Amino acid sequence: MSSHDCLFCKIISGDISATVVDQNDDILVIKDIHPKAPIHYLIIPKIHIKNIQDLQEENSRYIAKMMLMAKKLSQKLSGDQSFRLIMNNGAQAGQSVFHMHCHFLSGKVMNDF
Ligand code: 5GP
Ligand code: ZN
């Protein structure tokens, strides 16, 4: 899938609307449309990388930027600042949007998995 028919690229460009939580030059954070926890954000790099299998040395800095955004998001939580990050890589792992992203989940006691 190219960036032209990618849902998250369309959200990044503004062609499709989403509830934006935070952003900077490299990262967009939106609310997941089907939340699995009281707080369920998607941390999305503003570059079309399919998943970790497609990550290259030259764009690997986006991983660090995603983690630093997670830190910032956690600092803005009220109460317990615990959070879980999930990245699905590949269809069998549950990836449905093939633009790399990280699920930021918080606001409840998480079960083991
Ligand atoms: P994945 O399954 O690829 O790990 O995660 C994709 C996530 O995108 C899912 O949790 C799904 O609910 C969310 N999602 C799918 N379509 C939309 C949309 O149009 N807007 C928003 N905000 N989230 C979406
Ligand atoms: Zn994309």
CATH topology: HIT family, subunit A
Order of helices and strands: HEEEHEE
Highest CATH level, the class: Alpha Beta
What is the overall pLDDT average? 96
Q: Structural class of the helix and strand makeup?
A: alpha+beta
For the record, what is the CATH homologous superfamily label?
A: HIT-like
Shape: globular
* Bound compounds: guanosine-5'-monophosphate, zinc ion
**What is the share of helical residues?**
10-25%
Q: So how many helices?
A: 2
Structure explained in plain terms:
The chain contains 2 helices and 5 strands. By secondary structure, the protein is of the alpha+beta class. The chain has a 5-stranded antiparallel beta sheet, covered by helices on one side. A hairpin with a 7-residue loop joins strand 2 and strand 3 (39-45). The mean pLDDT is 96. The relative contact order is 0.23. The chain is 19% helix and 21% strand. It has a single domain, classed as HIT-like (HIT family, subunit A). It is globular, with a radius of gyration of 14 Å. It has helices spanning 7-13, 61-75, and strands spanning 20-23, 27-31, 39-45, 84-86, 102-106. The chain binds guanosine-5'-monophosphate and zinc ion (ZN). Guanosine-5'-monophosphate (5GP) binds next to strand 2.
List the topology elements.
Blueprint: H1 7-13, E1 20-23, E2 27-31, E3 39-45, H2 61-75, E4 84-86, E5 102-106
Antiparallel strand pairs: 1-2, 2-3, 3-5, 4-5
The chain binds guanosine-5'-monophosphate and zinc ion.
Guanosine-5'-monophosphate binds at residues 7, 18, 30-34, 42, 88, 94-97.
